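User: Fold this one for me? It's Tubulin polymerization promoting protein.
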Amino acid sequence: MPSVENSTMADSKTKSAKSANKTPPKSPADPVKEKAAKRLSCESNSSHEGAVAGELSALEEAFRKFAIHGDTRATGKEMHGKNWSKLCKDCHVIDGKNVTITDVDIVFSKIKGKSCRTITFEQFKEALQELSKKRFKDKSDEEAVQEIHKLIEGKAPIISGVTKAISSPTVSRLTDTTKFTGSHKERFDPSGKGKGKAGREDLVDASGYVSGYKHAGTYDHKVQGSKSDARIKSQPVL
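Assistant: Here's what I get for Tubulin polymerization promoting protein.
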């Protein structure tokens, strides 16, 4: 009998342990609360990203603007030699005396890697430090770097205007339609406007007049005028 009681007590303990290990069922989630929690998490992430973007210095912003200029595939993290030269020109780092375009190219080749064609932002700052020694010779190294940074901070690429047509006697003679001869002359009207298809193809003139006749279209007017005069003369005078 003691063995039966012991086995019964063991079974009851096992059942109670299993029931205790069971996790309580989850209550149905409130969809409104879930949406609010997601919105808050998104706002916190966006605010964090905005804070990171806001940490960019004015110098780095200028670097990125020039780095992507003229290249739709550029990420703004690296700059080509062409854009580096444009930055130095647009921001007046090149003054033609202390710093020339040759100096800019030499510094770029010195800073970039041997097998690389671009420079990073860190290398960009190193290049500016090299140029600052020439650009501001009368200042200390630290002051020279600050001055050259001021030239670039907050700047953006200067977009050139539309190229103006060159005015020269040769160009004027070639584009003056009043001086055209032969078949080229037939392609334009007296005002210089092109005739389009009529000026490129031989269209049949069915008017009955000789080509180039100055009084074309006056025949009908003359005939009608002569008929009316004849009618007036044929009427009896009362």
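One thing worth pointing out: The chain has a mean pLDDT of 75.
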